[in-house]
Each structure stands twice: as structure tokens, then as C-alpha cells.
Amino acid sequence: MEKRRIAILGSTGSIGTQALDVVREHRDLFDVQLLTACNNSKLLIQQAIEFHAACAVIANEELYDEVFQALDPHGINVFAGMSSIIDAMASSDNIDLVLSAMVGFRGLEPTLAALRSGKAVAIANKEPLVAAGKIVMETAREHNAPILPVDSEHSAIFQALQGEHSPIERIFLTASGGPFLRTPVQDLARVTVAEAVNHPRWKMGHKISVDSATLMNKGFEMIEACWLFGVDISKVTVVIHPQSVIHSMVSFEDGAVMAQMSMPDMRLPIQYALTYPERLPLEIPRVDFFKLGGFTFSEPDTSKFPCLEIAVEAMRKGGNIPCAMNAANEVAVNAFINGQIRFTDIPAIVRKCVDKCDFIKEPDLNGILDTDRNIRELATRLTTGK
């Protein structure tokens, strides 16, 4: 494998730090060109120095001086603001692969900028495909820019499709069920933030952990799968699989089902995206079939977790509705994390916002940006009462 020059958008988050774990194990194969963070200036500084990054960008412009003073003596270029991240994606010709791991909708424009410049994008950030999947995929095709999935579920599907030339009959997206799989529905209104972010299988940031607890994350993944693999939402089925060893499955018209299995560890799909089409050694626990005891599968309870049904309905409606759903969810989840609303208020607020969204059948980027802004304003009023 030839050495790859990489950029990590969101290097201080869960995916970003695990990606750097992969780089740390294979320093001879990666050259870190760019690292970005939103607010975690101290970790960004440590990362940039350790990996001799050519450039670092801190999105929070108020933290620029701190980062500049720490990195300038090391010869590392420092910039600030989201516009700098977008400009770096558009103008840099010394980056081969971009890992898009920023949290939320703000990752859309940097991802599009990277694709427009023809860079391969390993996408871990769900929201760009959820909010603007058609635009993202059309941009990738227009500029011949590969998109490599990083989510464990989509990586599993991607791996199951290697060497296949037959059409997909069905995609089975597996889900652990989150921390409240066995919690009675009447108790959900009283759950705490600490309980919601305590995922049984994965260690993730607060936002994605809450999304996993509501199953909105699985709804997002259904929408992502539609765009990444060119299937209708009717061909994507969510399967609750608490063991989280089978990361997803694909069935074909002859009845064959291909599954990808491994112990839960995000470094595997991250490394596969960074090194594709090659596989490299990775020190993670191996599947011990004699100790697993068995696999279980069940259907999700959409009456208990309505976010999943909201996501399916949004994809069926299409246009700017998935964008509205995402915007409302980001605001509602943030409000829950900040103690402003209850856990069960999240789907109620999302549904209200989606119902009030002015439908645009074929939104361009400006239409997506306008929808995001308008729905955020509406969701903020609903969460604060102002």
C-alpha cells in the first residue's frame, strides 16, 4: 500500500481519536496533512504535534491564538473558522483521503468541498447524507470522488458487497437496541442524560449516544444506506441484535445472505476505510464462537421508539424533509442533554417540526441550508418556549 496523505475533520471526537489510533499503528503508511476540531483546542494541539500535521484548524475562532501560539514553533500552519476548513478541502492538492467525522449538519459543506476537489471521502458523519444525500452523491459522481463508509453497519454492507455483481434484494441493518431496549415505555420519560449516553456496546460522543438511545441513529443509517447503496427505503430492514457481532447483512435474489462479523470495535471499519481495498493487521479481540452462546434477533418496537418510524416516513417523502428531521433532532437532542426537555420530548418535537416544514421536492444546496436554519429556529422555540 502506498503512503496516503490524510485529513481528519473532527480529529478530537470519538471517531477522530480512534482514527489516529490506527495511524499510530501504521505511521509508515499515513501522512497527516490536516486536523480539525471545534472547541477541544488542547487535544488538537497535542495531536498536531504528535503526528506532525502540516495544518490544524480550530473552528472556534476565539481559540485561534491559543492554538497558533502552541503550534507555530513547530512549523504547523494554523487557521480558524468553518470557512477555513471548507477552503482547505477545496484548495489543498496534497490530501488523498478525507475522514469526515465532524458532528452534525456542519459537516455537510466541508464534505461537499472535499468531493468537489475529487478527494476520496471516508464518511463517518451521518448528517450530510441524511440531510442532503442526493446532493452529496451527485457531487461525488460528478467529480469521480469515492465515498467510503465508516459506520460499522455501512462498512459491513460495503464489505459484504465486495466482488458481488448481483442486485441487492434486501439490506438488514443490525442494531444493539441501545440502553433502553428492556426499559418499560412508561419509564422513558424519567431517564437521565447519564443513562441515555451509557451505550451497552459502543463508546461514543453524547449526541450520537442519545440518537442511539432513541433509535434515531438507526433511522439515519437507513437513509444513509439508501443513498450509499442505491436502494429504496422499502428494501432496508432494521434488526435488533443485542450482541452487536453481526454488523449488518445483505440478501440477494438467490436467497444468499452475506454478513460481516467482528467484535464491536470502531477501529476496524475506520481502518478498512483508510486502507481500502487492502486489509492490515489490527489488534482487536477476535470472535470466539464457543463463548458467544448464540445470536438473537428481533423487530424494533416503533411505538416505543417512534424516531425510527419518523425517519422512514421522512425518506419516503423525500425532498427537504430528511433535512428538516435532522435539524429538529439536533436541536432537541441538545436540549435534552442540557436538561431543557425530557427524553420522550425528542421524537415529539421532531415530528412537529417535520409536519410544519415547507416541502421542497428538489432542493438545491441553498434550499437545504434554508430548511436547516428555519427548522432549527422552530425547534428552538419548541424546546425553550420562547
From TrEMBL:
Gene3D superfamilies on file: 1.10.1740.10, NAD(P)-binding Rossmann-like Domain
Binding residues for NADPH: 12-15, 40, 125, 127, 205
Keyword Kinase: no
Segments forming domain DXP reductoisomerase C-terminal: 261-377
Co-factor requirement: Mg(2+); Mn(2+)
Sections of the chain in a coiled coil: none
GO biological process: isopentenyl diphosphate biosynthetic process, methylerythritol 4-phosphate pathway involved in terpenoid biosynthetic process
1-deoxy-D-xylulose 5-phosphate reductoisomerase C-terminal domain residues: 147-229
Binding residue positions for Mn(2+): 151, 153, 221
GO molecular function annotation: 1-deoxy-D-xylulose-5-phosphate reductoisomerase activity; manganese ion binding; NADPH binding
Pathway connected to this protein: Isoprenoid biosynthesis; isopentenyl diphosphate biosynthesis via DXP pathway; isopentenyl diphosphate from 1-deoxy-D-xylulose 5-phosphate: step 1/6
Keywords: Isoprene biosynthesis, Magnesium, Manganese, Metal-binding, NADP, Oxidoreductase
Catalytic reaction equation(s): 2-C-methyl-D-erythritol 4-phosphate + NADP(+) = 1-deoxy-D-xylulose 5-phosphate + NADPH + H(+)
Keyword NADP among record annotations: yes
Pfam families found in the cross-reference section: DXP_redisom_C, DXP_reductoisom, DXPR_C
Name of the top EC class for this enzyme: oxidoreductase
Residues bound to 1-deoxy-D-xylulose 5-phosphate: 126, 152-153, 176, 199, 212, 217-218, 221
Family indicated by similarity: Belongs to the DXR family.
PANTHER family membership: 1-DEOXY-D-XYLULOSE 5-PHOSPHATE REDUCTOISOMERASE, 1-DEOXY-D-XYLULOSE 5-PHOSPHATE REDUCTOISOMERASE, CHLOROPLASTIC
Summary of the function given for this chain in its UniProt record: Catalyzes the NADPH-dependent rearrangement and reduction of 1-deoxy-D-xylulose-5-phosphate (DXP) to 2-C-methyl-D-erythritol 4-phosphate (MEP).
Designated name of the protein: 1-deoxy-D-xylulose 5-phosphate reductoisomerase
Organism: Candidatus Coprenecus stercoravium
Record gene name: dxr
